Amino acid sequence: RQWNVFLCFQSTQFNQNLTLWEKMGQSAEIHCSHTKGGSYFQMYWYRQLPGETMKQIVYTTTSSKEFFGGFKEEKYSITRPNAESGTFTVKNLEPEDTGWYFCAVSEHSDTDTCES
After folding, report:
1. Whether residue 101 has pLDDT greater than 80
2. I want to staple 46 with a disulfide (CB 3.0 to 4.6 A). Which of 28, 64, 73, 102 is the partner?
3. Model pTM?
């Protein structure tokens, strides 16, 4: 029997594909981009499974990434070609991956000032 995995994406003020149906064992790529400008270079990816609360998977900048809550790079990958776009990949899809995935961005806001 062939199983498919359904991924749904939500976004406001972003360009993001909204739904994907993929076969088990394959990968699903989610593209997210915005036009808020280069100062919005911090991108976050979240997942919400049916009946559960939303959980943060990863925080990224154009040069780094940090996974949260037991989410691992073996399952998820991130590419950030520039500050205004990113691609999130769910690898080796399983039925348990079915859910809602969200991207968000924030503007860098450093409250410390440099003094010499």
Report:
1. yes
2. 102
3. 0.78
